């Protein structure tokens, strides 16, 4: 049953860098990929139960209150923003090529909810989770202007706390968000004697362009999730292992965890649309395109640092013609082939014109909604968000499920034990009902089970 309680915001504050940004850093140049990033926010929610024995705020012989924790978070956030000064700035327009680093600050919300954290874990509700990541929804069309970063600390009746972070996709991808959180954590830990520094400079590799010259800017746009619903599926480690064996072939002898899960989710969605009344006829004659977000950093000729902040992700597109099989082995082989082609593309120095052309090609495909059935996927698996410790232990659960606002979209994260994968899927209602009853899928995944 969905929890009827709502999150109540009790305080709203602007947090600024603890030291003024030097004048020579007042204009931060966006990269080409920053400019072409979606007009949306990238959310993450971290849940911290009370009384975690792994806390690192040693020397305290009593429990910190919610007020003390939030004060600690705000102080250390202010210190962290000294290094991440662009996040405290503003992008003044959709066509801007710079961030004005004016120290306007980031938004910090303190909130409470009249339920226990265990109520959230028992049967996670997407509608409620969205209330834990600040006032700017991921689909907000103004995500690139105003505050670029929002933080919300929500206190539960049980004494636990959820920390929701929502950052504009114009300034950060998932890897950049991780870099920011790692640095913030080190400021939080009183015994820490080192810092985790970001590296800026993506614009030097991929300089911005004048978007105003386009009558219709080539910005990634997926289609609004009107009349769509989101469902959560959890694959346990043992079931993923069985799925990897099931989807193996001579072409791909050992699929990765993500490849195997992705293939089954994609297959289930396509099968559902093939028999749903409003899609069947059109889908049978249209190619299917599966676009996966891929981190560029480790794939260039000279791998880029993992703490390189900005948008360094690109879409890996896999096309399935309307006469091709949706067999798992076929889908895994096509996904692997697309990734191998992607690796070849970036096996040299980044070329601005080639990247620009590739982005525009993908945009053209996405705009042809009547010619292609497009599915989008973002996998955060293997990103160590479960190591984010603000001083009172590691999170019991990390989720980006509120990221889903577009139709046919998929997001994936590791389960708390690190072996499984949580999948959130957003589809049209009729298709989702068919997916939720798909016995092939349910043989490997549980539909919205308890977090633990």
Automatic annotation (TrEMBL):
Keyword tRNA processing among record annotations: no
Molecular functions per Gene Ontology: acyltransferase activity
The keyword Transferase is assigned to this record: yes
Pfam families: Transferase
Domain of life, source organism: Eukaryota
Gene3D superfamilies per the UniProt record, alphabetical: Chloramphenicol acetyltransferase-like domain (3.30.559.10)
Entry keyword set: Acyltransferase, Transferase
InterPro entries: CAT-like_dom_sf (IPR023213)
Family named by the database record: Belongs to the plant acyltransferase family.
Protein name: BAHD acyltransferase
């Amino acid at each position: 049953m969905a929890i009827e309680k709502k999150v109540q915001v009790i305080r709203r504050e602007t947090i600024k860098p603890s030291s003024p940004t030097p004048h020579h850093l007042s204009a931060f140049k966006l990269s080409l990929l920053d400019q072409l990033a979606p007009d949306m926010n990238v959310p993450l929610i971290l849940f911290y139960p009370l009384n975690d024995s792994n806390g690192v705020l040693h020397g305290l012989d009593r429990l910190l209150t919610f007020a003390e924790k939030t004060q600690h978070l705000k102080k250390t956030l202010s210190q962290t923003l000294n290094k991440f000064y662009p996040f405290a700035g503003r992008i003044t327009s959709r066509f801007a090529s710079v961030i004005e680093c004016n120290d306007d600050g980031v938004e910090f919300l303190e909130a409470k909810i009249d339920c226990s954290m265990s109520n959230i874990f028992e049967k996670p509700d997407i509608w409620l989770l969205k209330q834990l990541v600040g006032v700017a929804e991921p689909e907000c069309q103004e995500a690139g202007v105003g505050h670029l970063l929002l933080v919300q600390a929500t206190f539960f009746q049980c004494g636990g706390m959820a920390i929701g972070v929502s950052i504009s996709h114009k300034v950060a991808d998932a890897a950049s968000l991780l870099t920011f959180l790692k640095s913030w954590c080190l400021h939080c830990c009183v015994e820490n004697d080192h810092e985790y520094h970001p590296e800026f400079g993506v614009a030097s590799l991929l300089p911005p362009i004048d978007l105003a010259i386009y009558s219709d800017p080539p910005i990634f746009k997926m289609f609004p999730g009107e009349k769509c619903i989101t469902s959560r599926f959890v694959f346990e480690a043992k079931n993923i292992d069985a799925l990897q064996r099931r989807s193996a072939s001579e072409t791909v002898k050992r699929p990765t965890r993500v490849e195997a899960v992705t293939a089954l989710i994609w297959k289930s969605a396509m099968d559902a649309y093939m028999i749903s009344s409003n899609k069947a006829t059109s889908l049978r004659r249209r190619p299917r395109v599966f676009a996966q977000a891929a981190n560029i950093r480790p794939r260039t000729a000279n791998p880029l640092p993992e703490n390189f902040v900005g948008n360094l992700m690109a879409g890996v597109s896999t096309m399935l013609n309307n006469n091709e099989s949706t067999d798992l082995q076929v889908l895994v082989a096509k996904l692997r082939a697309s990734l191998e082609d992607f690796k070849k593309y970036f096996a040299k120095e980044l070329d601005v014109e080639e990247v620009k052309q590739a982005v525009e090609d993908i945009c053209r495909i996405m705009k042809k909604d009547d010619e292609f059935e497009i599915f989008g996927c973002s996998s955060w698996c293997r990103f160590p968000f479960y190591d984010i410790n603000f001083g009172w232990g590691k999170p019991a659960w990390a989720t980006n499920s509120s990221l889903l606002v577009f139709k046919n979209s998929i997001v994936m994260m590791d389960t708390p034990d690190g072996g499984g994968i949580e999948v959130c899927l957003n589809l049209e209602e009729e298709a989702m009902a068919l997916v939720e009853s798909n016995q092939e899928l349910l043989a490997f995944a549980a539909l919205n089970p308890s977090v633990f």
